Amino acid sequence: MTATRRLAAILAADVAGYSRLMGEDEEGTLAALRSVRRELSDPKIAEHRGRIVQDDRRRPACRVRQRRRSAR
What we know:
Strand content: 15-25%
Helix content: 40-55%
Shape: elongated
Strand order of the largest sheet: 1-3-2
């Protein structure tokens, strides 16, 4: 079997103060995170033909297969 190698760019993000924010207002924090993802992150990821590969709310990660697209 021949192995296929692919280059990809990985973006990992972290929410600063996540535990504190969740402790103060869990529903509001989750609503704000959903809003940021829907309005900012998802459109940019789609624009560069990427996809979310992990989403645990606190540290989402996405992959973009084409290096040139990921650098823009």
